[in-house]
User: Fold this.
Amino acid sequence: MQRTLDQFAIGEQGVVRAVVGEGKIKRRLFDMGITPGAEIMLRKRAPLGDPIEITVRGYELTLRITEAQCVTMMTFDTGTTAGEAKK
Assistant:
């Protein structure tokens, strides 16, 4: 199932399918390691929902909701491995 990163629930994991947005935001996300094929887990949300904290490539990263909306994800369904979701 494909959705944007801002729609994830705490603890949910997925694989990045695409990063969209204008040049500056897209470049910033790529520089932080959010590239197609990267595995991401949503760790926390701020009390008012913005920002969110994710784990990507073994480190924690905080993103604004507007940035998370630019990241299209493929979620892990029950029984789906990360390798299968990357296909």
Summary: The mean pLDDT is 88.
